[in-house]
Amino acid sequence: MIYHPEAETELVAAAQFYERRVSTLGAQFLDTVDHAIRAILEAPDRWPIIERDVRCYRVPRFPYGVYYRVLQDHVRILAVKHHSLHPGYWRHRLTD
Questions:
Q1: End-to-end alpha carbon distance in the chain
Q2: Per the confidence metrics, is the pTM higher than 0.85?
Q3: CB 66 within 8 A of CB 34
Q4: How many CB atoms lie within 10 A of CB 57?
Q5: What is the pLDDT of residues 7-41, one digit of tens each?
Q6: Maximum separation of any 2 CA atoms in the chain, in Å
Q7: Which helix (H) or strand (E) holds 20?
Q8: In principle, which of 16, 33, 52, 66 could form an S-S bond with 57, CB 3.0–4.6 Å?
Q9: Long-range contact pairs involving 66-70 (C-beta distance under 8 Å, separation at least 24)
Q10: For domain 2-95, which architecture applies?
Q11: CB of 81 within 8 A of CB of 68?
């Protein structure tokens, strides 16, 4: 599994946001996303294709989705996207 650098930045920023709101909530967010990543790695084709070959795992409890592609030798995390953000802001990452 490989994170796009911007996806990793999104993940850290979201965790920091939650941690500033409520102590330990950032860690809970990271744990939930970690669970999502493990589930994706166990069965990468399980979640729906939302565009081209990009799939989305909706993170429980938090308004986020993990957008990813299944490539020949790894899973590429393209975005850790808040549901309220513009739907296609991450599309340029398909070519990175």
A1: 15
A2: yes
A3: no
A4: 21
A5: 999 999 999 999 999 999 999 999 999 999 999 99
A6: 40
A7: helix 5-21
A8: 66
A9: 66/33, 66/36, 66/37, 66/40, 67/7, 68/40, 68/44, 69/94, 70/44, 70/45
A10: 2-Layer Sandwich (3.30)
A11: no
